[in-house]
Design goal:
The structure holds 2 protein chains of 2 kinds.
Chain A lengths: L1 E6 L4 E9 L4 H13 L4 E5 L3 E4 L1 H16 L3 E5 L3 H9 L8 E2 L2 H7 L1
Parallel strand pairs in A: 2-3, 2-4, 3-5, 5-6
Antiparallel strand pairs in A: 1-2
Helix pairs in contact in A: 1-2
Chain B lengths: L2 E10 L5 H15 L3 H21 L8 E9 L3 E8 L26 H9 L2 E7 L2 E9 L9
Antiparallel strand pairs in B: 1-2, 2-3, 3-5, 4-5
Classes of the chains: A alpha/beta, B alpha+beta.
């Protein structure tokens, strides 16, 4: 798993690649929660390079979404592979989490 | 129906073992010539159960092992069996998350077992001679896949 942080004028973008499983998700959790703790309230997670996600990875996204909701911020996910997107849909995350096609769409909507 | 043992391995109860577990799943999938779409959800289900055992089955710090074995039943049904000597825990009776709750009320957790139930054809639990035995069954055909 690899996470690249990019500060954009509209949001903080996390490009996550590889596998978000129960072994690797804590490292992503630390990065995203630390950024939110420092005051970032607009977050985009770009999953273009993400090959695999387990519930541990989804839990990090949920935790960040809860924290951002409380702070009046927002989180948008983009560029998900079909099967990754479907896992989020099965878990009902699409009711509170925008899953958009491209990073450009994400930055426009966050 | 005819049963054929495919792969079996015993892992220490540590999440660092996920890479080896994924390899084991891929080996079984290769033997059965499983479609890529099915491989993702099979890997997901197997990893969720393994993770659940590592996180919740053991109260002590002593090393334990988890045995994972896979067999083919008939032509396309894959049965995955997990055995551990942890405390009794029946994941089939785990509470399901309420998917209709707003984000602020959604509990962080409980998702793994829920996903397994959604993805697999069946999940069963038995307590046998002091061991937890969890069995996942899934037909490995693209049209039987939930994801992808």
């Amino acid at each position: 798993m690899e996470v690249i942080e990019e500060k954009n004028e509209k949001a903080l973008v996390f490009a996550v690649a590889g596998r978000l499983d129960s072994n690797t998700s804590p490292a992503f959790e630390q990065k995203i929660m630390e950024a939110i703790g420092k005051g970032e309230i607009k977050v985009v997670v770009d999953f273009a390079g993400l090959d695999y996600i387990a519930s541990a990875g989804m839990r990090v996204v949920l935790k960040a979404a809860k924290e951002l909701k409380q702070k009046g911020g927002a989180i948008v996910l983009c560029s998900l592979k079909d099967y990754v997107k479907e896992v989020f849909e099965i878990a009902g995350f699409d009711s509170f989490l925008p899953l958009v096609a491209t990073r450009t769409d994400a930055l426009a909507s966050v | 129906m005819e049963k054929t043992a495919l792969v079996a391995r015993t892992f220490p109860n540590d999440l660092s073992q996920l890479a080896g577990l994924t390899e084991l799943v891929s080996e079984a999938a290769d033997i059965m010539d499983v479609h890529q779409r099915c491989l993702f959800e099979l890997t997901l289900a197997v990893e969720e159960i393994f993770t659940n055992i590592v996180k919740y089955a053991f109260d002590d710090k002593a090393p334990h092992t988890i045995r994972v074995s896979m067999e083919k039943v008939g032509e396309r049904v894959l049965v995955t069996r997990f055995e551990d000597d942890g405390k009794p825990f029946d994941p089939t009776r785990a509470a399901e998350p309420d998917l209709n709750l707003p984000v602020e009320l959604r509990p962080v957790g409980k998702l793994g077992i829920f996903l397994v139930k959604k993805i697999m054809d069946s999940m069963t639990y038995e307590r046998v001679e002091g061991k937890n035995v969890i069995t996942l069954t899934k037909t490995m055909r693209p049209d039987a896949c939930v994801l992808g």
